Amino acid sequence: MIQTKIPEFKRPSKDIIAALKDIGTATVAGSLGHAGFRNPHMIGPVTQRAGKSIVGPALTLQFMPQRPDLFSEGEYVDPEAQLHRHVLYEVEDGDVVVVDARGDMSSGVFGDMMSTYFKGRGGAGIIIDGVMRDRPNIEKLDLALWLRGWTPNYHVQVSIFPSAVNVPIACGGVMVIPGDIIMADDDGVVVLPQSMAEKVIEDAQKHSEWEVFSREKLMAGESLRRYYPLHPDAQGEYDDWRKLNPLKRP
Fold first, then answer.
1. CB burial of residue 238 (10 Å; 0-12, 13-18, 19+)
2. Residues 6+ apart with CB under 8 A from 198
């Protein structure tokens, strides 16, 4: 079953992406939680390369359970019928491919060659609610990956098949719309709607302004009640501290 037309979507501006790069997923999840987005964190995909973090627009790939009247298993019979290839054709520099593989632990969505192509296209990272294959070779690529794990099986060997590219999906229990901003680090993966990006940036800036001060106070053994979150009674202390420690902004 071939998707005849891949929908277009709007990527966020490079300025928005740049402004988000120094913000951790915990800060983003907190900001979104206060705005009513109760759980933007994907459950299941975890980092495969500790220390890596990414920020970029989502391209999506959806898998569905196999049906013989809709899908032919042959891996190389008609390669262009395999939509996991087509999401990679759409990749631009800094993009993140997000895959709803239904939490399947037996079908390797991408392998060595597909991952090599993805890196060559300038992709930022891959998020899969499922698994990949060819781990020894893929690790040499040093890609940023958040997965459930690994398998030796190829992508359609067992029970699922790629059914659509750049459509809304669910990944790790979170809705992902093409163009959503994906942020991932060692804490996990969060989905940031483009419409919420400026608010998250503003919230993060406010927190960073007083958290440095509060962290110093807590490290000195002072009151958690007073300094986290910053109590209104401590605002004067913070203002005085700020005069001696002006913010360093780009």
1. middle
2. 16
**74-125 confidence digits (pLDDT tens):** 655 677 778 899 999 999 999 999 999 999 999 999 999 999 999 999 999 9
Amino acid at 82: Q
Is residue 116 within 8 Å of residue 167, measured between CB atoms?
no
Just give the CATH number of 14-192. Answer: 3.50.30.40
For the question of whether the overall pTM of this predicted structure is more than 0.85, the answer is yes
Rounded distance, CA 100 to CA 43, Å?
12
The alpha carbon torsion through 19, 46, 143, 20 (nearest 10 deg) reads 0
How many of the other CB atoms lie within 10 Å of CB of 147?
23
Q: Domain segments of the chain: what residues? A: 14-192, 199-244
Amino acid at 91: V
